[in-house]
Design a protein that fits this description.
Chains A, B: It holds the Pfam family FCD. 2 copies of one chain form a homodimer. Chain A is mainly alpha-helical and 246 residues long. The first copy, chain A, has helices spanning 16-31, 42-49, 53-65, 100-124, 127-147, 152-165, 169-184, 200-211, 215-240; strands at residues 38-39, 69-72, 76-79, 87-95. In chain A, α2 packs across α3 (53-65) and α4 packs antiparallel against α9 (215-240). Chains A and B meet through α3, β4, α4 and α7 of A and α3, β4, α4 and α7 of B. β4 (87-95) of chain A pairs antiparallel with β4 (87-95) of chain B, so a sheet runs across the interface. The first copy, chain A, binds a DNA duplex (30 and 30 nucleotides) through α3.
Chain lengths: 246, 246
DNA sequence: CGTCCATAATTGGTCCGACCATTGGCCCAA
DNA sequence: TTGGGCCAATGGTCGGACCAATTATGGACG
């Protein structure tokens, strides 16, 4: 078979659902609708778009499944996330990960991405971004000393600032999903009440390597943080003798 | 804020849709249905489950949006991925730019993940996995020589085999999304008709490092592939003088 | 005047029956 | 064997109806 350079997209004859979502995204953009805002009722949409309510509902159902929208019976349909006409929806489906392996898997992804993001951040961050990262670091350190332990929120704010300074929005979104995945099954620190403690000093060294515009140094420090969390996780797992089942 | 150990699942007022999906997942499990298999007609499901076809359709629409299922009018509804009652779906919405920067962003993600996956693969792959990777490599090399150039499909098959051998299903899913994001705006090789050509030899060296159980060597070879594609992309962009807009 | 509660209107959730568009198999003829 | 045309099956859309939860309304009562 000879090469077929053209992907030959299958022709979409019926794209009514997609058309509804496109129109809705355009509407949200023109109206400046953001998360929390309420969008028109299904009946209004059906009337305005000249389609049946069934079609509107099918379209909204898809957005609901993607977590973009929340429907409240008797109240209305509300935006949960910013929507746009050209967005890529990446549904990650994985076997119910309440076991140690799944937690480790999220850390493996983070190991790859956090190192890369830190390196890129050291290359691209401007003075303003570096100042912001420093600020987040200080907030985190303050919270650490006050509460005698790592604080998830402040810790995430710090990492988030680094991702944003990397100039690549994909880092933040993917790692945010890993964070959520991780915390969904990490309600208790597995009996290790100083969980994450060991990773604390590396946050400052990571900041220093970024401020020094040292990509490889920053990457190394970021990897230390992940390795430290991994070690804590293994420690807690060994203590609780987690075997894999929920 | 103090720790709130209980996730507090939002109250599910209406669980009819979910009940349908649960029943369908159970059915798929009992029948041993896998990807590619066709599942019962909407009308049959509605009759069997004692719900209306509308409800069945809403449920299937959610699965369709999650990419678990594919509907073909006039033919039926087919499984695209293994489904299970307790499976975690983490929808991820990414801004999909159509400019050069976005293409580069996907490569930055791949740089982090492919290196990590290659290293893990070298650590964990068993003889069977390594044999499969070798086979995919040979298929790719054969296609390369026959068509005088890289072939996307065979190339992806090779990388996919590596991801699967890494033991972490997240790698394949995330990078698959990056692939899609990349190819969505890369119909033509930007005028570089030997696009990807330079990355060809590194595929074999990558395989050799994996077969030798050399994690860091495998990581290095994987990074060479990404760097090569990046260089090609910059080359094509420079030629076409792409400035960012589509 | 303000508060409280029953009532009505609004809105999403489900159901039904019908029809359309596409697909795929079947049969028959060239 | 091949080709075309017919036809049943299947997903897609439609309109209308009713149910359930929520919210707004407005009057009664302290």
């Amino acid at each position: 078979m000879s090469a077929t350079p053209v992907p030959l997209h299958p022709i979409r004859t019926a794209a009514r659902d997609d058309a509804v979502l496109d129109a809705l995204a355009a509407f949200a953009a023109s109206e400046g609708l953001g998360p929390g805002d309420r969008l028109p009722t299904e009946r209004v949409l059906a009337d305005r778009l000249k389609v049946s309510r069934t079609t509107v509902r099918e379209a909204l159902t898809r957005w609901e499944g993607l977590g973009l929208v929340e429907r409240r019976q008797g109240s209305g349909t509300y935006l949960k996330a910013p929507v746009s006409r050209d967005m890529l929806h990446l549904p990650l489906t994985l076997p119910s990960g309440s076991d140690l392996d799944s937690l480790m898997h999220t850390l493996e992804i983070r190991r790859g991405l956090e190192g890369e993001a830190a390196a890129l951040c050291a290359l691209r961050a401007g003075p303003r971004e570096i100042a912001l990262i420093r600020h987040k670091l200080e907030v985190m350190e303050k919270a650490f000393h006050e509460r005698q332990g790592m604080s998830s929120d402040e810790d995430w704010d710090f990492h988030q600032a680094i991702f944003r300074a990397s100039g690549n929005p994909l880092f933040e979104q993917i790692v945010a999903a890993m964070y959520e995945l991780f915390h969904r099954f990490w309600e208790h620190p597995l009996g290790v009440h100083d969980f994450g403690h060991a990773s604390f000093p590396f946050h400052r060294t990571l900041y220093e390597r970024i401020a020094a515009r040292d990509p490889e140094g920053a990457r190394a420090e970021a990897l230390k943080i992940i390795a430290s969390v991994e070690a804590d996780l293994r420690r807690g797992a060994a203590r609780l003798d987690i075997t894999g089942s929920r």
